[in-house]
Amino acid sequence: MAATGNDALKPKYGPKVLQMREMIAQPVFAAFCAGGVAGAVSRTVVSPLERLKILFQIQSAGREEYKLSVGKGLAKMWRDEGWRGFMRGNGTNCIRIVPYSAVQFGSYNFYKKFFETSPGSDLSSLRRLICGGAAGITSVFFTYPLDIVRTRLSIQSASFAALSHAQRAKLPGMWQTLVIMYKTEGGVLALYRGIIPTVAGVAPYVGLNFMTYELVRKYLTPEGDKNPNAGRKLAAGAISGAVAQTCTYPFDVLRRRFQINTMSGMGYQYKSIFDAVKMILAQDGIRGMYKGIVPNLLKVAPSMASSWLSFEMTRDFLLTLGSDAPDL
User: Fold this and answer.
1) Is 325 inside a domain boundary?
2) Cα dist from 9 to 18, 25, 46, whole Å
3) Is 2 a domain residue?
4) By residue range, what is the domain housing residue 254?
5) Which keywords are on file for this protein (predicted)?
6) What is the model's pTM?
7) What is the torsion angle, in degrees rounded to the nearest 10, for the CA atoms of residue 161, residue 166, residue 172 and residue 176?
C-alpha cells in the first residue's frame, strides 16, 4: 500500500529534517514564527498612517506644522519627502516588530498553558486578559530599544520649523542613532526611556486585544465550525484592535513624548509621568491625550485585521508540518 500523509515524508527526508519539522510544528514555536510574519505584514500595510500618528503625537503649542487633517497630513508628507516619507522608519519598525510580535504571540501561547484546566481547554475572558497582558510586557522588554529608535527615525526628517535644513542634511540611520543615544543620553537607560508608560499601556492593550479577538472570533464562527472564514477573521481583528487602542491610547501619547524628551529641538523636558500629563492637559486639554488617534484608528482596522489573518494562516501551515497533522 502506498504511503500517505506525513508517512510519505519519512523516506524523502532524513531524521534531522523530520525532527526540525516536529519542532516547528509545536504550538508555541509555530505561534512565535507566525507572530513574526504577522507583525511585518501589518506594519508595512499601515506604515504611512503609523508615521503620521507619531508626528501628530509629538506636537505641542507653538509647534503645529502637522496640525492638519489626515488627508492633508499624508499629502504634506508626500510633498516634503515623497514615498520615502511614507516608509520612513518602517525598516526599523519591521526589524523591531518581527521579534516583538513573535515574542508576543509565542509567549501568549506559552502563558496560556499555565491557565488551562486541561490541555487545549478554553480560557475565561479574565485569564485571556492576564495572559495577553503578560505577553505584552514580555515583548516590550525584549524589543524596546528598537521602538525608541523607530520613533526618532520617524520624526527626525519631518519638516518641523525648529529643525533646520542643516540638521536634516545628514540624518543618522538605525544603528548610528542607537550609538548616539547610548553615548550622549545616559547609556542603557537612554534606550529604555519611556518604558514605564509603555508597559502601562501595552499590558492592558495586548490583553484587551487578545481577549476581544478570541471573543469576537468565537461569536463570528458559524455553529458547528471550528474556524470562521477569512472575512470574519479580518472583522474580528479590526474590532479587537479598535477596542484595545481606544482604551489605552493616552499611554501611547505619553510613550512617544518620553521617547523624544531629550531630543534636540523638540522642547520637551518632562520630570515624570504626572508632570507630562499635567503639562499636556494644561496646554491642550483632554484632546492632548488623544492626539493622533484619528490616523491611529484608521490604521488599526487594516493593521490588526492583516496581523491576525496572516498569523492564523502562517500558524496553521506550520502546524501541518508535524506528524500529528492528517496531511500536508
Assistant:
1) no
2) 8, 15, 40
3) no
4) 16-58+68-158+170-317
5) Calcium, Membrane, Metal-binding, Mitochondrion, Mitochondrion inner membrane, Repeat, Transmembrane, Transmembrane helix, Transport
6) 0.71
7) -110
**Residue in 49, 291, 96, 86 with CA at minimum distance from that of residue 191:** 96
Q: Which amino acid is at 132?
A: G
Residues with Cβ within 8 Å of residue 86, at least 6 apart in sequence = 47, 48, 51, 74, 77, 78
The amino acid present at 307, given as its one-letter code, is S
Are the C-beta atoms of 107 and 35 separated by less than 8 Å? no
Give the Cβ contact number of residue 33 at 10 Å: 18
Q: Is residue 10 part of a domain?
A: no
Return the amino acid letter for 290.
Answer: Y
Rg, the chain, Cα only = 22
Q: Which residues contact 17 (CB under 8 A, 6 or more apart)?
A: none
Residue 290 makes CB contacts below 8 A (sequence gap 6+) with 249, 250, 253
Query: What DSSP designation does 163 have?
Result: S
Per-state percent for the chain, helix, strand, coil, to nearest 5: 75, 0, 25
C-alpha 48/C-alpha 109 separation (Å) is 31
For the segment 213-243, what is each residue's pLDDT rounded down to a tens digit? Answer: 999 999 999 887 888 999 999 999 999 999 9
pLDDT tens for 12-37 read: 667 777 888 888 888 899 999 999 99
Which residues, at least 6 apart from 5, have a Cβ–Cβ distance to it below 8 Å? 325, 326, 327, 328
The CATH number covering residue 73 comes to 1.50.40.10
- Give me the number of domains the chain comprises: 1
Closest C-alpha among 210, 67, 194, 73 to residue 134? 210
Q: Is 139 exposed, middle or buried (0-12, 13-18, 19+ CB in 10 A)?
A: buried
CB neighbourhood size of 286 (10 A): 9
Domain for residue 41, yes or no? yes
Q: 222-227 — which CB contacts under 8 Å span 24+ positions?
A: 227/312
